[in-house]
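Q: Can someone sanity-check these two? First one:
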Amino acid sequence: MTDDDLKKNDVVRLDREEEEAAVEQAAKLAPKMLYEVIRRDGEEELSRSTRALVWSGIAAGIMISFSVLGEAIFRTYLADTPTRYLVENLGYSLGFLIVILSRMQLFTENTITTVLPVMHAPTPALIGRVARLWAIVLGANVVGAFAVAALYVYTPALPEELIPAMVELSEHAMGFAPAEAFFRAIPAGVLIAAIVWMMPQAETAGFFVIITFTWLIAAGDFTHIVAGSFEMAFLMVQGQLGIATALGSFFLPVLAGNIVGGTVIFSMMAYGQVRDEMDTEL
């Protein structure tokens, strides 16, 4: 075999290696790898200090208000046409974009990220850590929601022309019967968990993943515990909603529905599709 033949064989081998690498890159992350990425992310979240969780959760509760504000801006300034509803719900994505891309602590994200480590190695201690994180983050989200609601009600921070739309949106969110609020919260929990599941592979498309799925939550008229907590707080601060109604008709049913959607349904499905592969590795 001549030197030229050897060089040609080397070129062919390199081309095949490059082709194989390209195929692997195109395949991106297998379900097992996605599971592992999110599980490790959950473990990191569980190891964060209380102070970090509190401040991150408060920030998320404040920033999620921009979802309702975005909807209110579109509703206020767009002409009242049959298509306005679909357009105004794009505003709902604004708060979620800030919170998710800034890596703030949003309770509904934790219904999948912190649960996967428990599914991987369930222990009483780990379950206790998850319960601790859930309580801290949810409480901090609500504190942030009330803080920004008080800002809008007691200061001129919110333009007066937006207030009627904010009240309309808030009253609608609080107007569901408890059973309806619960069942409408399940798809929202599934969709937020789906965003978390897709983000490691989405890369630059993550922006559009968040917009699409959160728009679907708003357009589908589903209920979300944190965004809804701002609407709840906005009415409560003004004395338009009592605490018993807020808890019984909105907060507790929606909280349960989001957990069912994000943990019981989506996390179980995510774990189910990789369980055999994980067992094989073990």
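And here is the second, same format, sequence then tokens:
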Amino acid sequence: MIGVYCNDESKNAAHLVYYGLYALQHRGQESAGIAANCNGKMDLRKGLGLAGEVFRGETFANFPGNIAIGHVRYSTAGDGSSRSAQPLAATCRLGEIALAHNGNLVNAESLREMLTDEGVIFHTTTDSESILNLICQHGTRGIESGIKNAMSLIKGAYVLVITISDKLIGVRDFYGLHPLCLGKLADEGGYVLASETCALEALDAEFVRDVKPGEIVIIDKEGVHSIEPSRWCKKNLCVFELVYFARPDSIVDGVSVYEFRRKCGMLLARQKKIEADVVMAVPDSGIPAAIGYAEASGIPYGEGLIKNKYMGRTFILPVQEMRDDAVRIKLATIKRNIEEKRLVIIDDSIVRGTTLRRIVKHLRDAGAKEIHVCAASPEVKFSCYFGIDTPHREKLIANQKSPEEICEYLGADSLTYLSEESLREVCGEDLYCKACFDGNYPMEVPIEGLA
């Protein structure tokens, strides 16, 4: 998710957003969209597929506006149809408005019922449309009051980028569950709001700061204006952002994603001594942890699995059948580095276990002598309701099986998880939501989340 504001009104912000979406493509692969704001008039273009596919052949010369927002979708609520692709746009008493949302609402159902009772007609199945409707409905005294009132009603995880009139607006929920950063354009003059700092680098923008939990940032011709949260906030950044979701070169709330994963790998090696010939990663998110493991253990790091760079991330494909099919063509083995070797295989996490099981079989077929699987995070036992697609608990392998049973299911010789104590050591201050590991949610969640 990204928003760009160019100070020069003759500049085209949409092409900058397009480059930013390329940098953020790892955050969603189902659909992509851009809304350009030209003097308060919205031009919205979106579709199913990657950003490069949706905007193939687009020159952006006919996509004017010095303000634009963009979104790549990884659906955790609503269907995967093109109508649920973002950004979403509407016309209300405030004018034309476009909104993009990252996260999940835990009270989406009750909000939808309330709005439907009040005569609102929904055009999508996504919870993001409820946010847009609430802002429009409660914006009688301006966009600021509309956003504040909406924030008082919605519960869950949400990061928003909004454009209306001559403004670009960023919003982060009171828990700061997902990241949002502010950057300054170097040559163009203007500002960027983005989910990750890797998008700033793609636009040659300078990092200014992270948007704080509960903060509203408004950017217009006067510059950047901050509205502080209306209530007490405690940051609970989703730890899965650092474990898996964010790109390794990003800095999330002051934490290097690469260094976080590398330290997890180092601590994993110190937990249990394994006799092996080589350490290998499940690419790409497992690579930093594997490097850290190799450094701490003294076992050489080597490549054994080669990722097809034209394949996306299997975890964020919408259905299990698609994930299974994708694994077949996503990873190939370097048999020379595997045959008759005792392998330590590092993955970032184990959620369902189906992908890793296939990988272990690939390595067995390539002649591995022993396979010791290590997960650079604790056991995922609880569902996430805040925008990471860990499924209902009965589909989480660690919730249904013991580590010994999981090891047997995977076909591995041993299985080691990063302990919760080690994770706390890496995290430092208790500023993270780790509910998927420990079940301690920062707010009330649907009852099935506690079952």
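A (reply): Looked at the second one. The chain has 15 helices and 23 strands. The chain has a mean pLDDT of 91.
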